[in-house]
Amino acid sequence: MAEPVLHVLREALTAPTLRTLGESLASGATSADELTRVLLDSRPAFLRLLHRLGVSSLSERQRAANAIAKALREARLPPPGATLPTPPAREALEHAVRLLELHAHDERVAPLWRWCDGAQIKSDPNALRGVPRGVLISALEALGLSPATARLVPEALEHRELRVGFWSKQLCERGTEIALFDYADFGERLLGWTSFVLYPAKSTTNDPATVQRFRSRFGERLVAFEHTSAGWANQPEVDAWMAELRLTHVYIIKYGLPGEPEPEVFARTGATTLVHAVFDARQPHGDVYARISPCVPGRGAVVPHIVRPIDASGADLRGELGIPADATVFGRHGGRETFNIPEARHAVAAVARRRRDIFFLLLNTDPLHDVDEPNVLYLEPTVDLERKAAFIRTCDAMLHARQSGETFGLAIAEFSVANRPVITSSVHHDDGAARFHLDVLGDRGLYYRDSASLIDLLLSFDRNQMKQRDWNAYGAFQPEKVMQTFKRVFLLRQAA
After folding, report:
1. Within a domain: residue 312?
2. Residue 266, domain member (yes or no)
3. Tens-digit pLDDT profile for residues 85-101
4. What is the DSSP-derived secondary structure letter of residue 406?
5. Whole-number Å distance between alpha carbons of 469 and 466
């Protein structure tokens, strides 16, 4: 069954009239045959559901019940009242077009026909583009779409013909590639374009697990370019791929300076190039140029990274790692070599030797020299979001120690949105060029200046008292908000 139709069913089952059915489905107590009978017995609610799906003939009702029963049983639906996943924008548009066809003469959608010809919608959904956004959303909500789903429809109408390529010089577990994945992912889900991911197949820093994560999400739209020591000498290959993919835009995340690659290598077939500077924005190039934060040297618009929500409660890794439930745990993750403030590494060693009830959980981190303590644990990097969330929930706080500071600091943001305090240096920020994390954290951060102040902070940390505070400083970087900024800056070319 098509996902838009299945989403109708999911929404319908949260209605009070079908509450018993939903509870039975969630518990797994209803067989397919029993479900068919319940659907038929729930005549008023079921008939309304069939009407929404366009099934009105009596002769089709039994077949519809059987098909719906099978689909519902396979869907593993959440219990009534649970938050339902919002369909991707393009599927929300398909769903909306179907609903409008079925209810063309319904007075609830009458305001739409003042702005467009309803007869054209099925063959050309673009006919809806002339409808004011508020009018369209209100009509769809009146027909039963959730507000979140209804809001996606105008976005999909606006962007459905865009084909956006996302380029990075590597695919690894670092924050740059996490950000690229999120822009490509949420661009499809929230704005409705089609995303492609482009990367050099022979980069020595490609990480197989990361490549597989991209492949699992984007399938054949993950495109590996041949990359030689001569750089982008193989222009015919690039041109051939660009022509085949028919990309309208190419997004390039990079250090910020010209080169690696020049945007022009993607522009020969007419694509608009979007350059995103991570460290230095003093030499703008490409069709549109932006920075990831106001701290990046240079001028221009800012498009920040997306910070995915992380549930602060849930499973952790304490049992797996043998960490007592009442132990204090400081954790970090990020680049393997970027836990590199000497004073912080010294403080970890000193506290670990002094207090066995304090653990340090270091993910993707170069080992501390001459430190072989049972309460200093190392974990391999992971690109699995659930594993990462469980790691963060294992920790009572993040210990950050990057000598050069952060122009964004995605790992810091991930701890913060999970309501874990971040302990970081107040003096390591590259003379202000990499202090974005300090500006965002503000009074929701805990700060040290040297080894002595960090040791004092770690030894006096009260994990139970810290749980009483709100430590989330990154609420402004939710996917919906950031993708609207991405749209304004990179697509509409407006200042953010």
Report:
1. no
2. yes
3. 566 999 899 889 988 98
4. B
5. 6
User: CA-to-CA distance for 150 and 95, rounded, in angstroms?
Assistant: 10
- Peptide bond before residue 261 is cis, with ω within 30 degrees of 0: yes
Query: What's the pTM?
Result: 0.84
Tell me how far apart the alpha carbons of residues 324 and 410 are, in angstroms, rounded to a whole number: 28
Dist. CA 441–CA 452, nearest whole Å: 22
Eight-state DSSP code of residue 82:
P
| Three-state secondary structure call for residue 163 | strand
User: β-strand 358-363 against 376-379: which pairing, if any?
Assistant: parallel
Residues 132 and 59 in one domain: no
Using DSSP's 3-state secondary structure scheme, residue 403 falls into: coil
Task: Provide the 8-state DSSP code for 491.
Answer: I
Residue 133's domain comprises: 89-159
The pLDDT-based confidence of 231 (bands split at 50, 70, 90) is: low
155, 170: one domain: no
Helices and strands counted in the chain (H then E): 20, 13
81 in any annotated domain: no
Cα gap 64→425, rounded to integer Å: 62
- CATH code at 261? 3.40.50.2000
Please state the domain count of the chain. 4
Q: What are the CA-CA distances from residue 98 to residues 56, 222, 284, 364, 371 (Å)?
A: 15, 31, 45, 48, 64
**3-class secondary-structure state, position 253:** strand
Q: What is the pLDDT of residues 464-478, one digit of tens each?
A: 999 999 999 999 999
* φ and ψ of 192, to 5 deg: 90, 10
Select from 339, 312, 295, 327 the least CA-distant residue to 454.
Answer: 339
| Bridge partners of residue 231, in order along the sequence | 228
At 291 the three-state DSSP class reads strand
Q: Are residues 246 and 140 in the same domain?
A: no
DSSP 433-490: TTBHHHHHHGGGEEEESSHHHHHHHHHH--HHHHTTS-----GGG-HHHHHHHHIIII
Distance CA 195, CA 184 (A): 6
